[in-house]
Structures are given as structure tokens and as C-alpha cells.
Specification:
The structure is a homodimer.
Chain A (H helix, E strand, L loop, with lengths): L6 H10 L7 H13 L2 H17 L1 E2 L6 E2 L13 E8 L2 H10 L4 E5 L17 H9 L5 E4 L5 H13 L6 E4 L15 H9 L4 H9 L1
Parallel strand pairs in A: 3-4, 3-5, 5-6
Antiparallel strand pairs in A: 1-2
Chain lengths: 209, 209
């Protein structure tokens, strides 16, 4: 694509094109949309991004984003602090919260170990998790990281670091999605769903909840 | 989706979700991306949008966005000022420029007539076009608006307004895309490609250019 007829416009398009999943054509469409919108709207758009980066805080306990020292989950006395679900980022917290099935707390790593992207254990919030376990009061760690090489590596690293602690380390179940058909499921998932089969009673309880 | 654990983050996600074609999940991914990036990067992203809106100018001649009084096309002495191609917005200018087949100038309407969205002729840069034609020196107006009801309405409105002027009013050719097969083409397009068939000689000339 040729260069655009205006430098300030070009700069805005280039910045928008840096967003994940946004190509140059989509960025152009977005920039035109912002240009057509009112001046105040474009201003509040830009300021929202700048303010977010400058003012956001992280929960001292779990690493979730927060407006206060503790996030709304860690600060909730009804949540079970003895169960900690380890997730990659806040999107996973939102996804699990939306199920309404989890009453424990979270630990947000802020990423997963990825040598390709130069992310090692020190870049992640792993020491905080180990410290939390060592200081006692935790009965179970639920690993809810993605099933990729990076996710598995991170799971294993955490498992090793927690080695001496006498706690349960579990992982979220992988299996066939509810409503999916067996014949359309990939072999790895189907295999796991058989190996990790659950008691039928549990399924009934779940349905009646 | 539940509300997010941070107000500044929520505001940023809401602003990103206002972009065309961006849902809340994608906006969340974008906000996290910006949050993970360096502070300077988030700042230059936000400032680029604000600066674009405040500093951008429009070409006095054609309405294209520009850094100067005249855009780089209108300011180019090699372009043929007697042929004016009427387009909806600057994306169309970029698309036609990329073909390298057009040596005339443009007239950017800034939209098309759409009663549904409350856009009438007065909201568009149509009087400028009429004035340009009336002041003389223009031999041909090429209508390159979309083939929608709104596009057709706008075409017809412009055609009527230019009624008394002795100039050619043409429209870009609609037909089967180069490389497409006849059997997969919709009937309206195929019908038009037969009605508006072109001299075979022209096709050969095009290929040899």
C-alpha cells in the first residue's frame, strides 16, 4: 500500500496496526472511524489508553489488575483462600469467573514460560506463588494454563518448585466440550477424555446445580 | 461478561470496543496487549489518535486528507485536472491510486447520502463538486461510489445537480473480477458485464500496458 497523504494520519494508522490481529486495512478503517467521530470522543479514546497504562494497579496478593491494593476477588471474605487457581492472564480470570463455578482465589502469572519470546520464570509472577504456598494455609493449587508446549513447561516448572510442599496440585480437566460429538473430536482430546473419565454421579450433580 | 476488576481498565476496554468490527473480547485482548507494552508505546498510541484528530487538514480542492492546503495529488502538476473521480472516502482514493491506472484527480464526498443514518446532501462535499464543474475546465466526472441503494441515490443526486453542465458523466465499470469464473458470478453482475461489454481491442491494450 502506498504511503498515506498525511503524516499524522499515517502515524495513527501505524499505531492502530500494532494492535494484535489488526492489519493495515483494518487499521485504516479504524483511523477513519476515529477521524469521523467527534473530537471529544477521539480525545477520550486516546486518554483512556494513556490513563490505563499510568494508573492501573495490580493486586498485591494474586497479580490480577485492580483499582485497590487487593482485587475484588482476594478482598472478598467469602472466597476460599486455601484453593489457588494459577492462570496466564486476567482474561482467564474473567472466563472462569463467568462460569460461576469457582469459589477459590487466583494467581495471575502474567504470561507463560516461552524461550522463543524471551520469557523465563523470572519474568513471571512464580516466586510470589511459591512464597504464598510456603507461608502456609493453601491446600490446593489448580493449574489452568494452556495445553501448549509453553503451558506444559510452565506447569512442570511450577510443579517442581512446589515439590517439597504437602499440597494437592491439580490441573483443569481437558475433554470433549459439552454438546460436541465424539466423531468430530480430535484424537488427543478424545484419548484424554477416556483416560481422565469422571464418576457419572458427578455429572448428575453438576446438571442439577 | 462481568464487569472488570479495574475502572481504568474497563474504560480502556469500552473505548476499544467502540472501534468498528471490534467486540468486547477482542477489545479486552487489545487492552491487555497495550498494558503489557512499554509505557512510552501506550503513550504514543494514545497521543497518535488525539494528534490525528486535532492536526489533520483536508485538501481545499478535493477534500482528501492532507498535511498541506492541497493534497499531494491535487498539488501534482502531472495529474489531469479535467478528469475528476468522485469517491466516498479516502480509502477509495488509496485503492484507485494503488492500481496505477488513473492520472486524473479526485473529489472525496466524505460519505454517501443515507437517510437511515441522517446523512443528507448537505452533510457531504457535493456543492464543492458542483462549484468546481461550474467554474469550468472539467471534461469528465467519473462516479466511483458503491453499488448500494445509498450509492445509487448519491450518483443520481450528483447527476441531477450537474444536469445543465456539458460534461461527460461516467461510472466505473462493474463486471466479473479478473480471474473469476462465469458460473460463480452472481446474476446481476453477469448481466451487467454483458450489457456493458467492452471492445475486445481495449482489453488487449490493457494487457499490453
Amino acid at each position: 500500500m502506498n504511503s498515506l497523504p498525511s503524516k499524522v494520519f499515517e502515524t495513527a494508522v501505524n499505531e492502530l496496526a500494532k494492535l494484535p490481529g489488526i492489519g493495515r486495512k483494518t487499521a485504516l478503517r479504524m483511523a477513519l472511524h476515529l477521524l469521523k467521530s467527534r473530537r471529544e470522543d477521539a480525545e477520550s479514546f486516546g486518554m483512556a489508553i494513556i490513563r490505563m497504562h499510568n494508573e492501573i494497579r495490580y493486586c498485591l496478593d494474586c497479580g490480577n489488575i485492580s483499582d485497590n491494593e487487593l482485587c475484588s476477588i482476594c478482598g472478598n471474605p467469602k472466597r476460599d483462600k486455601s484453593i489457588v487457581c494459577v492462570v496466564e492472564d486476567i482474561r482467564d480470570v474473567i472466563a472462569i469467573e463467568n462460569t460461576g463455578q469457582y469459589a477459590g482465589v487466583y494467581h495471575v502469572l502474567g504470561g507463560i514460560i516461552s524461550p522463543m519470546e524471551g520469557i523465563g520464570p523470572d519474568e513471571l509472577n512464580i516466586s510470589g506463588l511459591v512464597g504464598k504456598v510456603e507461608s502456609g494455609g493453601i491446600a490446593e493449587i489448580i493449574l489452568a494454563l494452556p495445553t501448549t508446549i509453553e503451558g506444559d513447561t510452565t506447569n512442570f516448572y511450577i510443579y517442581k518448585r512446589l515439590g517439597s510442599a504437602t499440597i494437592h496440585v491439580t490441573a483443569i480437566a481437558r475433554g470433549i466440550s459439552v454438546g460436541d460429538e465424539l466423531e468430530h473430536t480430535d484424537e488427543v482430546t478424545l484419548g484424554r477424555s477416556i483416560v481422565n473419565r469422571t464418576l457419572y454421579e458427578k455429572t448428575i450433580q453438576k446438571k442439577n446445580q
